Amino acid sequence: MRTLSKHQQDILLDFYFDCAGQEEADTARQLLDSHKGAREFYDKLNHSLTALENLDHQEHASCPDHLVEKTLEKLYSHQSITESIKTDRLNQLLADENHKIVTKRQSFWRSFAEAVSVAAAIVILSGVFVPVTRQMRAQAWQTACQANLNKISQGIAQYAGDNQGTLPSVETKAGNPWWKVGSTQPQNQSNTRHVWVMVKRNYVNPKMFACPGNCNSRSLPALEQEKIQSMPDFPDRRYITYSFQLICDTNKAVLPSSRTPLMSDVNPIFEKCVKLTEDYSKAEFNPVKLSEKLLKVNSSSHRGKGQNIMFSDGGVKFTSQRVLDQNDDIFTLNGRDTYHGTETPSCDKDVFLVP
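Given the sequence above, the corresponding C-alpha coordinates read:
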Protein backbone atom coordinates (compact mmCIF):
# COMPACT_ATOMS: atom_id res chain seq x y z
CA MET A 1 0.00 0.00 0.00
CA ARG A 2 2.81 2.39 0.88
CA THR A 3 4.47 1.81 -2.48
CA LEU A 4 1.37 3.06 -4.31
CA SER A 5 2.10 6.60 -5.51
CA LYS A 6 -0.30 9.54 -5.28
CA HIS A 7 -0.64 9.56 -9.07
CA GLN A 8 -1.56 5.86 -9.07
CA GLN A 9 -4.12 6.39 -6.30
CA ASP A 10 -5.59 9.27 -8.31
CA ILE A 11 -5.96 7.01 -11.34
CA LEU A 12 -7.68 4.32 -9.25
CA LEU A 13 -10.10 6.88 -7.80
CA ASP A 14 -11.00 8.08 -11.30
CA PHE A 15 -11.43 4.49 -12.46
CA TYR A 16 -13.72 3.65 -9.52
CA PHE A 17 -15.93 6.70 -10.06
CA ASP A 18 -16.10 5.93 -13.81
CA CYS A 19 -14.54 9.20 -14.94
CA ALA A 20 -11.18 7.91 -16.21
CA GLY A 21 -10.12 8.27 -19.82
CA GLN A 22 -9.33 5.21 -21.93
CA GLU A 23 -5.59 5.39 -21.25
CA GLU A 24 -6.06 5.90 -17.51
CA ALA A 25 -8.60 3.06 -17.38
CA ASP A 26 -6.08 0.72 -19.02
CA THR A 27 -3.43 1.83 -16.53
CA ALA A 28 -5.83 1.18 -13.64
CA ARG A 29 -6.57 -2.33 -14.88
CA GLN A 30 -2.86 -3.05 -15.19
CA LEU A 31 -2.29 -1.82 -11.64
CA LEU A 32 -5.08 -4.02 -10.31
CA ASP A 33 -3.63 -7.02 -12.12
CA SER A 34 -0.03 -6.56 -11.03
CA HIS A 35 0.14 -4.33 -7.94
CA LYS A 36 -0.85 -5.74 -4.53
CA GLY A 37 -1.09 -2.28 -3.00
CA ALA A 38 -3.44 -1.19 -5.79
CA ARG A 39 -5.75 -4.14 -5.15
CA GLU A 40 -5.81 -3.42 -1.41
CA PHE A 41 -6.56 0.25 -2.03
CA TYR A 42 -9.34 -0.54 -4.52
CA ASP A 43 -10.88 -3.27 -2.33
CA LYS A 44 -11.05 -0.95 0.69
CA LEU A 45 -12.54 1.82 -1.42
CA ASN A 46 -15.12 -0.54 -2.89
CA HIS A 47 -15.99 -2.02 0.52
CA SER A 48 -16.43 1.43 2.04
CA LEU A 49 -18.78 2.64 -0.69
CA THR A 50 -20.83 -0.49 -1.37
CA ALA A 51 -23.31 0.33 1.39
CA LEU A 52 -24.42 3.42 -0.53
CA GLU A 53 -26.18 1.14 -2.98
CA ASN A 54 -28.75 0.43 -0.22
CA LEU A 55 -29.93 4.04 -0.18
CA ASP A 56 -33.45 4.69 -1.43
CA HIS A 57 -32.60 7.30 -4.07
CA GLN A 58 -36.22 7.94 -4.96
CA GLU A 59 -37.33 8.57 -1.37
CA HIS A 60 -34.33 10.75 -0.60
CA ALA A 61 -33.73 12.39 -3.97
CA SER A 62 -32.57 15.78 -2.72
CA CYS A 63 -29.67 16.80 -0.53
CA PRO A 64 -30.05 19.50 2.18
CA ASP A 65 -28.52 22.83 1.17
CA HIS A 66 -26.52 23.12 4.37
CA LEU A 67 -24.88 19.78 3.65
CA VAL A 68 -23.79 20.93 0.20
CA GLU A 69 -22.30 24.09 1.66
CA LYS A 70 -20.49 22.23 4.44
CA THR A 71 -19.19 19.64 1.98
CA LEU A 72 -17.79 22.26 -0.38
CA GLU A 73 -16.20 24.06 2.55
CA LYS A 74 -14.49 20.82 3.49
CA LEU A 75 -13.32 20.28 -0.08
CA TYR A 76 -11.81 23.73 -0.39
CA SER A 77 -10.21 23.48 3.05
CA HIS A 78 -8.07 20.64 1.75
CA GLN A 79 -6.35 22.88 -0.82
CA SER A 80 -3.80 24.09 1.72
CA ILE A 81 -2.91 20.63 3.05
CA THR A 82 0.43 19.25 1.90
CA GLU A 83 0.56 16.22 -0.39
CA SER A 84 2.01 13.94 2.29
CA ILE A 85 -0.77 14.81 4.74
CA LYS A 86 -3.34 14.24 1.99
CA THR A 87 -2.06 10.73 1.37
CA ASP A 88 -2.08 9.84 5.07
CA ARG A 89 -5.56 11.32 5.47
CA LEU A 90 -6.95 9.28 2.56
CA ASN A 91 -5.55 6.03 3.93
CA GLN A 92 -6.95 6.81 7.39
CA LEU A 93 -10.39 7.67 6.01
CA LEU A 94 -10.48 4.44 4.03
CA ALA A 95 -9.60 2.42 7.11
CA ASP A 96 -12.13 4.28 9.29
CA GLU A 97 -14.99 3.93 6.82
CA ASN A 98 -14.19 0.26 6.28
CA HIS A 99 -14.32 -0.35 10.06
CA LYS A 100 -17.57 1.57 10.50
CA ILE A 101 -19.47 -0.34 7.86
CA VAL A 102 -18.23 -3.72 9.01
CA THR A 103 -19.05 -3.20 12.72
CA LYS A 104 -22.18 -1.04 12.53
CA ARG A 105 -23.96 -2.08 9.38
CA GLN A 106 -27.28 -2.98 11.05
CA SER A 107 -27.79 0.30 12.91
CA PHE A 108 -25.86 2.69 10.71
CA TRP A 109 -28.56 3.17 8.12
CA ARG A 110 -31.50 3.71 10.48
CA SER A 111 -31.82 7.36 9.66
CA PHE A 112 -31.36 9.27 6.47
CA ALA A 113 -29.36 11.93 8.29
CA GLU A 114 -26.69 9.38 9.17
CA ALA A 115 -26.67 8.07 5.62
CA VAL A 116 -26.17 11.58 4.28
CA SER A 117 -23.29 12.04 6.72
CA VAL A 118 -21.55 9.03 5.21
CA ALA A 119 -22.22 10.38 1.72
CA ALA A 120 -20.63 13.67 2.74
CA ALA A 121 -17.64 11.83 4.20
CA ILE A 122 -17.23 9.96 0.94
CA VAL A 123 -17.32 13.18 -1.05
CA ILE A 124 -14.64 14.56 1.25
CA LEU A 125 -12.72 11.32 0.80
CA SER A 126 -12.72 11.71 -2.97
CA GLY A 127 -11.71 15.34 -2.54
CA VAL A 128 -8.64 14.66 -0.44
CA PHE A 129 -6.40 14.51 -3.48
CA VAL A 130 -8.05 17.34 -5.39
CA PRO A 131 -9.63 20.61 -4.20
CA VAL A 132 -12.80 19.81 -6.09
CA THR A 133 -14.25 16.64 -7.55
CA ARG A 134 -12.72 15.10 -10.65
CA GLN A 135 -15.72 16.04 -12.74
CA MET A 136 -15.43 19.66 -11.69
CA ARG A 137 -11.76 19.63 -12.58
CA ALA A 138 -12.54 18.11 -15.98
CA GLN A 139 -15.06 20.90 -16.55
CA ALA A 140 -12.44 23.46 -15.57
CA TRP A 141 -9.99 21.94 -18.06
CA GLN A 142 -12.64 22.00 -20.76
CA THR A 143 -13.26 25.69 -20.11
CA ALA A 144 -9.53 26.46 -20.03
CA CYS A 145 -9.13 24.57 -23.31
CA GLN A 146 -11.84 26.73 -24.88
CA ALA A 147 -10.02 29.82 -23.65
CA ASN A 148 -6.83 28.55 -25.33
CA LEU A 149 -8.63 28.06 -28.63
CA ASN A 150 -10.20 31.49 -28.35
CA LYS A 151 -6.73 33.01 -27.99
CA ILE A 152 -5.48 31.02 -30.99
CA SER A 153 -8.54 32.10 -32.98
CA GLN A 154 -7.76 35.73 -32.22
CA GLY A 155 -4.19 35.16 -33.38
CA ILE A 156 -5.39 33.60 -36.63
CA ALA A 157 -7.78 36.50 -37.28
CA GLN A 158 -5.03 39.03 -36.61
CA TYR A 159 -2.59 37.11 -38.82
CA ALA A 160 -5.15 36.93 -41.64
CA GLY A 161 -5.77 40.66 -41.31
CA ASP A 162 -2.06 41.35 -41.65
CA ASN A 163 -1.56 38.90 -44.54
CA GLN A 164 -4.35 39.48 -47.07
CA GLY A 165 -6.79 36.99 -45.56
CA THR A 166 -4.49 33.96 -45.53
CA LEU A 167 -4.09 31.40 -42.78
CA PRO A 168 -0.70 31.05 -41.08
CA SER A 169 1.32 28.73 -43.29
CA VAL A 170 4.69 27.71 -44.64
CA GLU A 171 5.41 26.17 -48.02
CA THR A 172 4.56 22.47 -47.97
CA LYS A 173 3.91 19.90 -50.66
CA ALA A 174 1.09 17.40 -50.90
CA GLY A 175 2.27 13.97 -49.78
CA ASN A 176 4.66 15.24 -47.10
CA PRO A 177 4.43 13.45 -43.72
CA TRP A 178 2.09 15.74 -41.79
CA TRP A 179 2.73 13.82 -38.55
CA LYS A 180 6.45 14.70 -38.06
CA VAL A 181 6.02 17.15 -35.19
CA GLY A 182 9.34 18.40 -33.86
CA SER A 183 11.46 17.44 -36.85
CA THR A 184 14.46 19.74 -37.26
CA GLN A 185 14.90 18.94 -40.94
CA PRO A 186 14.95 22.04 -43.19
CA GLN A 187 12.07 20.87 -45.39
CA ASN A 188 8.60 21.72 -44.06
CA GLN A 189 6.68 18.54 -43.34
CA SER A 190 4.57 18.50 -40.17
CA ASN A 191 1.23 20.25 -40.36
CA THR A 192 2.07 21.94 -37.04
CA ARG A 193 4.70 24.14 -38.71
CA HIS A 194 1.93 26.32 -40.07
CA VAL A 195 0.63 27.42 -36.67
CA TRP A 196 4.20 27.60 -35.31
CA VAL A 197 4.52 30.67 -37.53
CA MET A 198 2.13 32.47 -35.16
CA VAL A 199 4.35 31.59 -32.21
CA LYS A 200 7.52 32.85 -33.90
CA ARG A 201 5.83 36.10 -34.92
CA ASN A 202 4.30 36.65 -31.47
CA TYR A 203 0.68 36.33 -32.53
CA VAL A 204 0.02 33.59 -29.95
CA ASN A 205 1.76 32.50 -26.75
CA PRO A 206 3.07 28.92 -27.20
CA LYS A 207 1.37 27.89 -23.94
CA MET A 208 -2.01 28.27 -25.65
CA PHE A 209 -1.32 25.22 -27.82
CA ALA A 210 -1.24 22.77 -24.87
CA CYS A 211 -4.67 21.73 -23.62
CA PRO A 212 -4.65 21.47 -19.80
CA GLY A 213 -6.85 18.39 -20.04
CA ASN A 214 -4.16 16.44 -21.89
CA CYS A 215 -2.08 14.54 -19.31
CA ASN A 216 1.01 14.63 -21.56
CA SER A 217 1.15 18.42 -21.59
CA ARG A 218 1.06 19.35 -17.93
CA SER A 219 4.05 21.03 -16.24
CA LEU A 220 5.98 21.53 -19.47
CA PRO A 221 9.16 23.63 -19.34
CA ALA A 222 8.54 27.10 -20.74
CA LEU A 223 10.05 27.90 -24.13
CA GLU A 224 12.52 30.77 -24.12
CA GLN A 225 12.02 33.42 -26.77
CA GLU A 226 15.55 33.04 -28.16
CA LYS A 227 15.02 29.32 -28.56
CA ILE A 228 11.65 29.85 -30.22
CA GLN A 229 13.17 32.00 -32.95
CA SER A 230 15.72 29.31 -33.81
CA MET A 231 13.20 26.46 -33.96
CA PRO A 232 11.27 25.47 -37.11
CA ASP A 233 8.48 23.69 -35.24
CA PHE A 234 7.11 22.85 -31.81
CA PRO A 235 9.71 20.82 -29.85
CA ASP A 236 7.50 17.72 -29.76
CA ARG A 237 3.89 16.57 -29.58
CA ARG A 238 3.50 17.53 -25.91
CA TYR A 239 3.71 21.21 -26.81
CA ILE A 240 0.79 21.11 -29.23
CA THR A 241 -2.20 18.98 -28.34
CA TYR A 242 -4.47 20.44 -31.00
CA SER A 243 -5.00 19.37 -34.60
CA PHE A 244 -5.13 21.96 -37.39
CA GLN A 245 -6.67 21.98 -40.85
CA LEU A 246 -4.25 20.25 -43.21
CA ILE A 247 -2.53 22.78 -45.46
CA CYS A 248 -0.38 21.99 -48.50
CA ASP A 249 0.19 23.28 -52.02
CA THR A 250 -3.03 21.64 -53.25
CA ASN A 251 -5.12 22.80 -50.29
CA LYS A 252 -5.35 26.59 -50.12
CA ALA A 253 -4.29 28.40 -46.95
CA VAL A 254 -7.11 30.93 -47.11
CA LEU A 255 -9.32 31.86 -44.16
CA PRO A 256 -12.72 30.37 -45.15
CA SER A 257 -15.59 32.80 -45.57
CA SER A 258 -18.12 30.24 -44.34
CA ARG A 259 -18.15 28.63 -40.88
CA THR A 260 -15.52 25.88 -41.14
CA PRO A 261 -13.66 23.86 -38.47
CA LEU A 262 -10.02 25.01 -38.33
CA MET A 263 -8.68 23.40 -35.16
CA SER A 264 -9.74 20.93 -32.49
CA ASP A 265 -8.45 18.88 -29.61
CA VAL A 266 -5.96 16.30 -30.82
CA ASN A 267 -7.17 13.90 -33.53
CA PRO A 268 -7.64 10.60 -31.60
CA ILE A 269 -7.03 8.38 -34.63
CA PHE A 270 -3.34 9.23 -34.99
CA GLU A 271 -2.32 9.77 -31.36
CA LYS A 272 -0.40 6.53 -30.94
CA CYS A 273 0.63 5.61 -34.46
CA VAL A 274 4.09 7.24 -34.48
CA LYS A 275 7.03 5.03 -33.51
CA LEU A 276 9.79 7.26 -32.15
CA THR A 277 13.50 6.50 -31.98
CA GLU A 278 16.45 8.38 -30.49
CA ASP A 279 17.14 9.69 -33.97
CA TYR A 280 13.92 11.55 -34.79
CA SER A 281 14.70 11.50 -38.50
CA LYS A 282 14.12 7.74 -38.34
CA ALA A 283 10.71 7.96 -36.68
CA GLU A 284 8.08 5.82 -38.36
CA PHE A 285 4.34 6.09 -38.89
CA ASN A 286 2.45 2.87 -38.28
CA PRO A 287 -0.31 2.64 -40.91
CA VAL A 288 -3.81 3.05 -39.55
CA LYS A 289 -6.88 1.23 -40.85
CA LEU A 290 -10.16 2.67 -39.69
CA SER A 291 -12.34 0.47 -37.52
CA GLU A 292 -15.77 0.97 -36.02
CA LYS A 293 -14.09 2.00 -32.77
CA LEU A 294 -11.78 4.54 -34.43
CA LEU A 295 -14.73 6.07 -36.26
CA LYS A 296 -16.47 6.79 -32.95
CA VAL A 297 -13.63 7.64 -30.55
CA ASN A 298 -13.29 11.21 -29.31
CA SER A 299 -10.18 13.14 -28.28
CA SER A 300 -8.37 11.83 -25.21
CA SER A 301 -7.82 15.36 -23.87
CA HIS A 302 -11.30 15.32 -22.35
CA ARG A 303 -11.52 11.65 -21.34
CA GLY A 304 -13.16 10.62 -24.58
CA LYS A 305 -16.27 12.67 -23.80
CA GLY A 306 -15.81 14.99 -26.78
CA GLN A 307 -13.57 17.72 -28.15
CA ASN A 308 -13.45 21.48 -28.40
CA ILE A 309 -13.62 22.67 -31.99
CA MET A 310 -12.55 26.12 -33.19
CA PHE A 311 -14.31 27.49 -36.27
CA SER A 312 -13.18 30.01 -38.86
CA ASP A 313 -15.70 32.59 -37.61
CA GLY A 314 -14.00 32.60 -34.21
CA GLY A 315 -16.52 30.39 -32.43
CA VAL A 316 -15.43 27.53 -30.15
CA LYS A 317 -17.75 24.63 -29.33
CA PHE A 318 -17.43 21.49 -27.22
CA THR A 319 -19.16 18.52 -28.81
CA SER A 320 -19.13 14.74 -28.79
CA GLN A 321 -19.88 14.77 -32.52
CA ARG A 322 -17.10 14.35 -35.09
CA VAL A 323 -19.36 14.42 -38.12
CA LEU A 324 -20.48 17.98 -38.75
CA ASP A 325 -21.96 19.83 -41.72
CA GLN A 326 -22.24 18.04 -45.06
CA ASN A 327 -21.69 14.70 -43.30
CA ASP A 328 -17.96 15.40 -42.95
CA ASP A 329 -15.89 13.72 -40.23
CA ILE A 330 -13.29 16.28 -39.14
CA PHE A 331 -10.77 13.54 -38.25
CA THR A 332 -10.89 11.52 -41.49
CA LEU A 333 -10.83 11.98 -45.26
CA ASN A 334 -13.86 11.15 -47.35
CA GLY A 335 -13.62 7.75 -48.99
CA ARG A 336 -10.37 6.67 -47.29
CA ASP A 337 -10.05 3.99 -44.62
CA THR A 338 -6.27 3.42 -44.52
CA TYR A 339 -3.71 6.09 -43.62
CA HIS A 340 0.07 6.29 -43.96
CA GLY A 341 0.55 9.84 -42.72
CA THR A 342 0.85 11.53 -46.12
CA GLU A 343 -2.77 11.81 -47.25
CA THR A 344 -4.38 15.06 -48.44
CA PRO A 345 -8.02 16.16 -48.86
CA SER A 346 -9.63 15.67 -52.25
CA CYS A 347 -11.24 19.12 -52.08
CA ASP A 348 -11.38 22.24 -49.90
CA LYS A 349 -14.69 21.16 -48.37
CA ASP A 350 -13.20 17.93 -46.99
CA VAL A 351 -12.02 19.13 -43.55
CA PHE A 352 -9.10 17.09 -42.19
CA LEU A 353 -7.64 18.14 -38.83
CA VAL A 354 -4.19 16.64 -38.15
CA PRO A 355 -1.91 15.45 -36.75
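Confidence is low (pLDDT under 50) at residues 55-63, 78-82. Try to locate this feature in the C-alpha coordinate string yourself.
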